[in-house]
Amino acid sequence: MASNTILFLSPPTVTRHHTPLFTTTTTTTSLRRIPQFSSYSFSTRSSSSRSISATSRAMEALIFDCDGVILESEDLHRQAYNLAFAHFDVRCPPFSEVLDWGTEFYDVLQNQVGGGKPKMRWYFKENGWPTSTLFPTPPESDADRAKLIDVLQDWKTEKYKDILKSGTVEPRPGVLRLMDEARASGKKLAVCSAATKSSVILCLESLIGMERFQSLDCFLAGDDVKEKKPDPSIYITACKMLGVSEKACLVVEDSVIGLQAATKAGMSCVITYTSSTAEQDFTDAIAKYPDLSDVRLKDLEEVLQNAVTA
């Protein structure tokens, strides 16, 4: 096997991790992680208690990210990318093996580069544009490179949809209950995802049900904004569509990219982290949870009230 080359994304840092698709031997590479915090803990900026009547005035809208929040999806995306790379025989010189994104590498990549096309564009820019069945020699023009990215992303998206349709994927704990509590209490409800619209729609239809999906006050996907997270565009747009102040919005995210997007938009954010994001620095979050199974709407109202009055 050809030796691996370590490349870093700076800032923050990410390591190139290239493993053969059809072998069981994996070469270990060192990953430089972003700052850690104590895993599986809960924190808020303020521990002071508020009455329900006071907190109910603070939150007017509850906004959920999709991937990582509504479902723990990142490894599903990774599998779909690798299926696309295998289908189109994508090989990055000087490596002779089909490109395969390993679990450890993808955990870092997906938390540093938002959106599927930007992920591939960054990878190929850093590691060399690949050969494939689409382009026997590495594409050199911007048009050919864009075509390669578009075809790979479209094919990957279809495979991801097949996984969602398989009936084996369930929503993360507590999400549906919180959505129902927010709707029953008159809060506006939104979903904002950096993923492609078609895949997010399928995810929501499959996991939260058509009735909840159709009752959303706002739904935005990566196709709807020019810049992806951590750019705040998607949350700024959602705030305008909802017709509420950014201070009255609470965002639920799972990664530092989503946290940055929310806070740059002037919104408070709580984190429900996953195994792939648990080591990230969520200092700017007003609360963090391993999942939402024990979190009620009144809890979120309280932490938001504490944050906006701090």
TrEMBL record:
Which CDD domains does this UniProt record tie to the protein? HAD_CbbY-like (cd07528)
Keywords (alphabetical) are: Hydrolase, Metal-binding
Q: Which family does it belong to?
A: Belongs to the HAD-like hydrolase superfamily. DOG/GPP family.
Protein name per its UniProtKB record: HAD hydrolase, subfamily IA, phosphoglycolate phosphatase-like, domain 2, HAD superfamily
Q: Which InterPro entries match?
A: CbbY-like, HAD-like_sf, HAD-SF_hydro_IA, HAD_sf, PGP-like_dom2
The protein's organism comes out as: Helianthus annuus (Common sunflower)
List the GO molecular function terms: hydrolase activity; metal ion binding
Q: Which Gene3D superfamilies match?
A: HAD superfamily/HAD-like (3.40.50.1000), Putative phosphatase, domain 2 (1.10.150.240)
Q: Which superkingdom heads the taxonomic lineage of this protein's source? A: Eukaryota
User: By its UniProt entry, which SUPFAM superfamilies does this protein fall under?
Assistant: HAD-like (SSF56784)
Task: Identify the Pfam families for this entry.
Answer: Hydrolase
Q: What is the lineage of its organism?
A: Eukaryota, Viridiplantae, Streptophyta, Embryophyta, Tracheophyta
